[in-house]
Amino acid sequence: MEWQQFEYFQTLARMQHVTRAAEALSITQSALSRSIARFEDEIGVPLFERQGRSIRLNQYGHIFLKSVDGMMKEFHKGKQEIQELLEPEQGQVSLGFLHTLSTNLIPDLIASFRMHYPKINFQLTQSPSHTLLEQLQLGELDLCLIAPMGMKAPIQWAQLWTEELFVIVPKGHKFANYESITLEEIAAESFILLKKGYSLRITVEQLFEESGITPNITFEGEEANTVAGLVAAGLGISILPNLKGTDQSEISQIRVQWPQCQRVIGVSWVEGRYLSPAVRQFKQFVFDHFSVEE
Predict the structure, then answer these.
(1) Do the bridges between strand 190-194 and strand 216-221 make them parallel or antiparallel, or are there none, so unpaired?
(2) Is the pTM of this model over 0.85?
């Protein structure tokens, strides 16, 4: 049995049309038919039902196709891994990150990395932490820059940096000229926060709980920039990291005296999963950039 026969079977099984399958494989119809006939002889059962010019998988064909698909997937994966080893400075990194990291950190980080590895490309995804973790587990992402929320094996997480959180109020607000403030002083305000489930929302809720505050939440958003815009419009106040790269001309940013307002961001990956040389290069670059030992 030849490897080529598996490819012929898979193509015909997907198209279920001899003429189109032969064209896709760049062989003659007769050559394809002979190959499939020999293939069925070696398997020991017919895999297709033939009625005139029409052809479709039978029950044995459907069962066998699942195994062939898995085998072909592993073959192409192995081939890709070898190719990546031969060309370690090329490839793609699938990176997920929180919405609140997009304004300047992610662009600056990637631009700095590509100065050293210009041929490595990125597929970027912005989502809340729980969505990023799901995509990471499914293999849709290689790495994630997220807060340490709900980490379970085999997902690994390493701290990269800590960033301060600020009270954000509109210009003209009674607290706008304050240099610092406590959460107790703003307890009666209307708040605009990110939606439930977002890691920053969870962190802010923990800060409120620590301060004994039950916040009046009037708006919820999916983007930190949207929240900042609603604050600028005078619809409430919020607690956000320093949104560098965002227009802050209509808002004031106030440090929090108590409790300590900050969040931790790190990088996550799946322990034991193959990481291409491109992904490993970027992962190490991130550790070096933030002076973290792997």
Answers:
(1) parallel
(2) no
Residue 52, Cα to own-chain centre: how many angstroms?
A: 48
The residue whose two tokens read 């040389």 is: 277
Instruction: Give 168's pLDDT tier (boundaries 50, 70, 90).
Output: very high
Token pair 């100065």 is found at: 115
Which tokens hold the place of 182? 């406590």
Long-range CB pairs of 270-276 (<8 Å, 24+ gap) are: 270/136, 270/137, 270/139, 270/154, 270/155, 270/156, 271/153, 271/154, 271/155, 271/156, 272/154, 273/139, 273/154, 274/81, 275/142, 276/80, 276/81, 276/84, 276/91, 276/92, 276/142
Listed in sequence order, the residues at least 6 apart from 27 whose beta carbon sits closer than 8 Å to its beta carbon are 8
Residues whose CB is less than 8 angstroms from the CB of residue 67 and which lie 6 or more positions away in sequence, other chains included:
none
Cβ pair 237, 167 in contact under 8 A? yes
Residue 50: which of 33, 66, 30 has the closest Cα? 33
Question: Which residue type occupies 87?
Answer: E
pLDDT of residue 105: 85
Which amino acid is it at 50? R
Flag whether pLDDT at 150 surpasses 70: yes
